[in-house]
Design brief:
Layout lengths: L1 H6 L4 H10 L2 E9 L11 E9 L10 E9 L17 H17 L7 E5 L2 H8 L8 H17 L2 E5 L7 H14 L16
Parallel strand pairs: 1-4, 4-5
Antiparallel strand pairs: 1-2, 2-3
Helix pairs in contact: 3-4, 3-5
Length: 196
């Protein structure tokens, strides 16, 4: 509460930085191996990086609270299936978004959150800004999660440019590509931005 009082004394640009450093920043990304002529057997993966204390300048400040990744599940009977019919970049991006929202639903802290993605498709589908023409079951699931999270906390999403050197977006990309390839991600100590 004291910090919020201090924000009112700062210039507007610093107020934005101060308020954003209080938010959780969640970076999500998806990856697909051979994103052409996709099928239910096409390998695709997703990655989620949760950061606190970021001023959102893209330099990778702040601390990772948690990160996780996985493969896109395309088989209706398999655990983790949420509606993806094929492995593709789009289903991987949407699955990453869904996994971030599911993580939020399990947290006790109800502070504001911003989800960062390099997929305008995933962000606009999640919020219902765009009408789904494909991946309808998956999009419906993601929208349900978005609505559920939105009822209990402030959540928004923002587009970030892919492969532009933003450290945490690059980390989410690393997690996604490693999941798609069924490889273990490098630990943060040995990983460098841009390293897939």
């Amino acid at each position: 509460m004291i910090l919020l009082g201090l924000c009112s004394l700062l210039p507007i640009t610093n107020q934005k930085l101060a308020s954003e450093s209080l938010m959780l920043h969640i970076y999500v990304d998806g990856s697909c191996i051979g994103n052409q002529n996709v099928s239910d057997e096409t390998p695709a993966g997703w990655g989620v990086v949760i950061v606190e204390g970021s001023n959102d300048l893209g330099r990778g400040n702040g601390d990772i609270v948690f990160e996780f990744n996985g493969r896109v599940v395309t088989s209706k009977g398999e655990e983790g299936y949420i509606g993806a019919e094929v492995g593709s970049n789009n289903t991987a991006e949407l699955t990453a978004f869904a996994e971030a929202l599911r993580w939020l639903l399990k947290q006790d802290d109800l502070g504001p959150v911003i989800i960062k993605t390099d997929s305008k498709y995933a962000g606009n589908q999640a919020t219902g800004a765009w009408k789904a023409k494909a991946n309808i079951e998956l999009v419906s699931h993601v929208r349900m999660l978005w609505d559920e999270v939105s009822m209990i906390r402030s959540v928004e999403w923002e587009h970030v440019r892919a492969h532009s050197g933003h450290r945490w977006n690059e980390r989410a990309d690393h997690l996604a590509i490693r999941a798609a390839n069924s490889e273990t991600p490098l630990s943060l100590s040995f990983w460098k931005p841009g390293q897939r």
